[in-house]
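Example record used in the benchmark description.
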Amino acid sequence: MAMSDTPRDLSAVGTARPLRVAYLIDRANCPNALLDAIFAEAYCRWGGRRTLIVPTSIDGIDPRYAQWLWFYDADIIYSYVDLSGSALAGIHERYSPAHLALHEQRGRTPDDRLYYKPNLPVLGLSSLSVVPALLSRNWTSLDRITNLRILDKYFDQSTNPFLGENFGFLSESFGSGLISRAFPDLFTCLALVSQQTIDNPHMGRNPRSNYETDDSKIMEALGQPGPLITLAQLSDLLSPYLDTAPDSTGGGLSLIVGDTIDDRLLFWNGHHRYGETTFGEVTSLRVPVGKFADALFRKQVKQIIRQRGKYDFNGRNDSITLRSASIDEAQLEEIAATLRTEGGWLAVRVVRHSNNDAWVPTFRYPDR
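Model output (structure tokens):
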């Protein structure tokens, strides 16, 4: 090559990205506790809200998810399915993960809360590691965030499945209530606690945290402006995302109603259908069917949507899509009518999915 043909400047560009984990599950044998464990692990890891959950059988990956998993480019593929030898070989050949791990119960029984807890071969960066970045910049026209609070629960029998699944609890994801005391200069906590613990003077509590025995008080706090953030949001903050082709999200929040595994996968994997989110935005919520009988709960969910819902293409966050893989369209329309009229206006469109696979994306630039 002549000297004149040699490029004068050579450059390389790199950027940090989160550890990517894909979980393989068998939809026919997937108890709620298994998904609870995956969600809790994902919320403690930076980029974890973008974790992909892939339906799989002993013979390998569901073909409808094959391209999605390929573009996702997982560093770790963690399987709750005992794959055949040919399936293992196929996954290694096509996806080339750094680690392909099979979940081990280690002698535990299903009633043990650690039975389904993932044991990743490599630990990713903590979702709490983005807190200093969060506090160091202006995210709105207001000043920098001060008095940051993170949603938590006391390490006792207090629980709320709706809050845990949609937002995450600090102690459930990190496995210890002590994490709430570890960074007093960075954040405090708003924590759910049982009345029994409050009444017991021997149960130590963090004096800098605020404790609530009433779930509705925490729901109310999530629906108000203020420096309350959740692990779900921290685990997605500043995280890169897959660029999917234009789709039917409408840009606004997706409200999934239903209690089946398909509904829970719609909620979790549907997050990938959204691109970048701004500080505080929530792209999706899943609500158990029975909770809609509670008028106060409905009111508080609507307030959370108005305060934290994903803004659509028109710059509004009061336009949502009601989705389900288990509720028929007639019942969805009844729920939508209630949401539209009760406690203030909300634009609601209804989409009935045949199953969780109905929302598998295509990609904007599949050749890149």
